[in-house]
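Q: I have 214 residues here and want to know how they pack in 3D. Can you give me a structure?
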Amino acid sequence: MSTASEAPGASASPVHPTEPPRRIRARYTDTTVTVYQAYSPALGVPAARDGRFPAAWKRERMTWIKPSFLWMMYRCGWGAKADQETVLAVEIDRAGFDWALRHACLSHYEPGEHADRGAWRRELKGAPARVQWDPERDLRLQALPYRSLQLGLAGEASRRYADEWTVAITDVTPLAREIHALVGAGEMTAAAALLPGERPYPAPGGTPGLGRVS
C-alpha cells in the first residue's frame, strides 16, 4: 500500500463496506481474540514484560476491554492521557471471550431487549459482564455512524480474564505513537496500513443486542 500523503479532504477512515448499526470488529484467530486496554506504566510495563497481569491489578474491580484499536485510541488519546500511557494488546482465549458475551447484560436499559427497567436492573446486578455499544472511530478519532463493542468484566469474569483467559500481552504503545504521528503529518494511507487487521467477529448466541450485531 502506498505511503504517499493523501490529498486534503481525503477520508481518515479505512475503506469499509456497508456496516450494520452494531458489529463486533476484532483481530482474532480460531482460538484467541485480541482486545485493548491502557494503563499507567506501573501496571502496563510489568504486564507486557511478564505476559500476565501483576498482583497489583485489581481483580475485584470492573475492567473494560475493547476489540477496536481505534476506539481504544479515542479512549486513551493515543496513549497521552494520564494513567493510560501504556497501551496493551491483550490476546485472550476466544472461548472465554464468548463466555463473557453470552453471560453479559447491556450496560443500559433498552426497550425490546428487556421486559422492563426492573428486569434489566435485576439482570445487570447479577451479570459478570456488560456490553456497551460505542461509536466506532476513524483515524482522526471522529465518530462513525456505526458502533463497536466495549465489554465490561466484573467479578468472576474479571478474575478469569486476568488469570485464565490471557494468552499474551504486548505493549503496542510504539505502534500507537507511530500511527498518531502519521495522522498528524497527513499520511493517512500510511497510517491506515499500520492498523491491526480487524474483521467482523461472529457473535455467539446470547450476546446482548444480537439482533443488531452481524
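Q: Anything worth noting?
A: The CA atoms of residues 203 and 210 lie 7 Å apart. Residues 1-15 have pLDDT under 50 and may be disordered.
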